[in-house]
Amino acid sequence: MKTKKILYWTFLFLLILSINLGLPSITIFAEGSCEDCKWDEPIIEAKPKKSTSKTSSGKKPLLMMEWKILVKQTNGEALAVNPNEFVFRNKVTGYRLEVKVNQSGYLYIVNKSVDGTNEIVFPTKGINTSNNEVVKNQVITIPKTKTPGTISQEDDVLYFEGQQGADIVYLIFSREQIDPLQAGANAEYLQINSSLLQTIKASSAQEVVKQKDPKENNATRVINNNRKDNSDLIETIVLTHTNQSKSNSPANENNLADIRARNMANAIEALRLFHSVQATYQAGVGQGNFGSTKDLLYQQLIDTKLANASGIGDGSPYFGYKFQIKNIKAKGGNLADFTIIAIPAIQNGQDRTGDSCFYVDATGVIRTSNSPTVEATSTSKPIGN
Questions:
Q1: Does residue 102 share a domain with residue 171?
Q2: What's the pLDDT tens digit per position in 135-154?
Q3: Share of the chain above pLDDT 70, in %
Q4: Backbone angles phi, psi at 16, to 5 degrees
Q5: Domain-embedded: residue 97
């Protein structure tokens, strides 16, 4: 009984830490830890929250999604890839996103580009006739196709263009319509504010379990295992892309340059997150001052992975980078400031984990040293963020 209590409070603590405002983190990532999470087994009592809701009361399965990324190979065949181990080539790697759900509901897909813009990808005009009311085992493909699981010569695919870095794809599956996102059904292109995404994420009570589908290569199944509030499910996918003109290959096949490119893109995104949450901390409990790593973690503004890479916990790197945070308190008429430096965990040799150090302060300008062994400073070159 004592062990169960410890596990319960550990689980609850991790859930609280999972809420963040920027880069995707694993809310609760317990791979394979949901033994009774069946795709179509009704195990919870679902109740509509809106008087206008189409959701019926009664026993329902837990909300689940299954997604995969397909890339178009040179022979025209489709290859399902793991985005954590794959780097896309701008204007070269054609890809498609496929999402399947386990019950009726509403599906939304939002893409956050490297430049920070958030575009509603689904629903939009032309995809599923702008209808995002999905049913059990329905597969939504972006771009649309008549042959899910394959890519024919005639099929459209997506390409990354412009600035290299990491795009973030948000998959949102809800039992009821989310009105601000529903507007995308009437538009071919619609941008939304980051604050809206943050509000949706922060209001979710999800407890996420992720599983690999043994029947589907590189397909990820995502489950909201919250039995008391199972109203929505939010998944985040990070897609790293580069301008490097190399042949398309998974990053885990000795392609160390691909891994470094992915690491640097994630380090930059982490610095953007740090700047955002520092502003939140300063305007709130900081009362004009910025927070330490421990402060930001305690206020649930960063997750344990970033905290570890910033000197808390086991000190493990975040995508091959470690972070040094220094704060200067407001004093004698001088405003508070902070500096955060991102440094590759391995700086030398073929196995180095990045090709540059990065820097950010209260100005929000991210700077690069263009060297893995030279720390970036306030006078280093801006990355153009």
A1: yes
A2: 999 999 888 877 777 777 66
A3: 81
A4: -65, -40
A5: yes
